[in-house]
């Protein structure tokens, strides 16, 4: 938590010699400066916020801060001393970091005692002279705004640097610019965002686009636009203006994208559009025809259409290779079946003749387990053979066709 303090002081007051007409401050770790006007003080604060990517909000303020009233009522102003220079505090304003106050720190700091502090008798004597001159209107004081800025290391418990810019609210300067652009006729948020980005790049080129203070989100821009439009059009006329501006923006985008507006060609609306399959996965009917999906009209509906393929395009090489694979699988299955049957019979006879009852049961369980594994292997091979047979039948009945040789029967 950090704070920024500004005081509206009237300093110094001429008591004896002109050399007292010099501002003297006690320099600490914070940056302290004096400005003749309130606008210059707040401009320096804004520059500090932009340079350090921070933001301050009002925490405490007195009623008379910023009011340049006459110092004719000495009873309501207390006279302070700073290195033998008297001054009157006309107001005070304390601003805290917008991330919140750090309540774990001390609420207040004790005043530091200095050796140069004048004695009490001298203070009372000069105060009496000062009050008399103020009451008579003959005072040589000048008004100053004392600005005290913290260091960047004083910020705690929140991100600092470029990351801190992601959580900053929109700047008041951009809010005024939004009102100005609305007066010029900009009513849609995308155009407003584009104008704001151009304004920031022109006036504040050093600010990064990640800083939400000068590059706000589209939702923030819309909220401030709606607020400004409601103030400008209290009867609700801004809704029609916003709608018309959006329609003009969309039409301009379409023109920029296409160059010229083109009418839709309706000559091919009722034509049949066929999209060839990306991979060969035929669905064969019993009569040798094949079902294939295709598009009809300009809609996205799918319909089944019968596709008849000429027989002269059958690939004989594919048919021969599939037949050879099927024959090899059949030979392997038959040989495996005979070998398993012979080995199973021989093992059963030897176990029954030479082993007792417990050994016979154990061996019988092992034989059943082996038979189960053999059955699974045989089923897998039979499934592969059936798949190859289906492929062979499909190749004999249907040709492999290309995109340009597709014939449809309606």
Structure in words:
Residues 268-286 have a biased composition (Polar residues). Residues 105-125, 232-286 are annotated as: Disordered. With 410 residues, the chain is an alpha+beta fold. A hairpin with a 5-residue loop joins strand 8 and strand 9 (290-296). Helix content is 43%, strand content 16%. The strands form two sheets. Strands 1, 2, 3, 4, 5 and 6 form a six-stranded antiparallel beta sheet that branches. The chain contains eight helices and eleven strands. It has helices spanning 38-52, 120-136, 172-183, 189-203, 218-232, 238-258, 316-354, 357-397; strands at residues 3-11, 31-35, 56-61, 79-82, 85-97, 142-149, 272-273, 283-284, 290-296, 302-307, 408-409. It has three domains: 3-105 and 112-163, no CATH class; 169-256; 269-410, no CATH class. The model is unreliable at 10-29, 259-264, 268-314 and 400-410 (pLDDT under 50).
């Amino acid at each position: 938590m950090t704070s920024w303090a500004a005081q509206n002081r009237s300093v110094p007051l001429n008591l004896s010699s002109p050399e007292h007409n010099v501002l003297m401050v006690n320099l600490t770790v914070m940056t302290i400066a004096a400005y003749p006007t309130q606008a210059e003080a707040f401009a320096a604060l804004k520059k500090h916020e932009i340079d350090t990517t921070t933001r301050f909000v009002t925490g405490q303020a007195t009623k008379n801060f910023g009011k340049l009233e006459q110092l004719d009522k000495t009873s309501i102003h207390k006279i302070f001393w700073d290195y033998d220079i008297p001054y009157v505090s006309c107001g005070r304003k304390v601003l805290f970091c917008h991330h919140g106050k750090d309540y774990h720190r001390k609420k207040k700091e004790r005043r530091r005692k200095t050796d140069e502090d004048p004695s009490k008798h001298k203070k009372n004597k000069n105060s009496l002279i000062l009050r008399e001159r103020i009451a008579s209107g003959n005072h040589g004081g000048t008004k100053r705004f004392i600005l005290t800025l913290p260091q960047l290391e004083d910020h705690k418990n929140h991100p600092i640097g470029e990351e801190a810019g992601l959580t900053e609210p929109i700047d008041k300067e951009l809010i005024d610019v939004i009102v100005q652009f609305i007066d010029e006729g900009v009513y849609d948020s995308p155009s407003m965002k584009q104008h704001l980005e151009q304004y920031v790049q022109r006036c504040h080129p050093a600010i990064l686009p990640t800083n939400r203070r000068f590059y706000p989100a589209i939702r923030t821009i819309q909220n401030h636009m709606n607020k400004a439009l409601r103030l400008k059009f209290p009867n609700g006329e801004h809704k029609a203006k916003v709608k018309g501006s959006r329609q003009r923006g969309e039409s301009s985008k379409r023109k920029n994208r296409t160059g010229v507006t083109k009418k839709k060609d309706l000559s091919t609306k009722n034509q049949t559009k066929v999209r060839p399959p990306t991979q060969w996965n035929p669905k064969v009917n019993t009569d040798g025809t094949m079902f294939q999906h295709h598009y009809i009209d300009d809609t996205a509906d799918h319909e089944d259409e019968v596709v008849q393929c000429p027989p002269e395009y059958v690939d004989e090489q594919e048919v021969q290779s599939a037949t050879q694979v099927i024959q090899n699988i059949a030979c392997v299955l038959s040989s495996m079946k005979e070998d398993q049957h012979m080995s199973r019979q021989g093992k059963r006879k030897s176990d029954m003749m030479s082993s007792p009852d417990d050994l016979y049961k154990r061996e019988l369980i092992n034989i059943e387990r082996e038979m189960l594994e053999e059955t699974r292997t045989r089923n897998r091979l039979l499934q592969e053979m059936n798949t190859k047979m289906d492929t062979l039948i499909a190749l004999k009945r249907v040709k492999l066709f290309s995109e340009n040789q597709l014939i449809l029967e309606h």
